[in-house]
Here is the input.
Amino acid sequence: MSSIQYIRRTRDYYRAQGFKKDYIWAHFDEIPFSPLVKPLADCTITLVTTAVVEPEIPKPIREASSYPFSEVPTNFHTDDSAWDKVTTNTDDRQSYFPLEVLREFVASKRIAKLAPRFHFVPTEYSQSNTLEKDAPTILEACTTDQVDIALLIPL
Here is the structure.
């Protein structure tokens, strides 16, 4: 079995659509992650999702934001996101926002606790917005909440 050459296929697809400039893939000279320095059972965890929390916010002004875990919506707004709507669905919130599982992990002491807030990051194709606005906003919130682990779950 051969691997799928995702970057090449994506570049070819966009060229076929008439785009003249190739997408510049994000890359880092330094890895922006750090190793876990304490046991998982002592860690505070949060979730970062691209599923839309408040669908009434118009797309142009969507920005990274934080919400209390006590105010998690029953269902997130997922219709505007790009996912295979023919063979799957987002009816099961646990598939992209595993809050109940994390609460079970807290109860069983597999993790210490949930942070007070979770975070939304808009799905954009702007690396500069991600690097200069969204990532610093989420980092500041995670630092304030003393988060040890942020689970990044894109929709």
In short: The longest strand covers residues 44-49. The chain has three helices and five strands. The mean pLDDT is 85. The chain has one domain: 29-153.
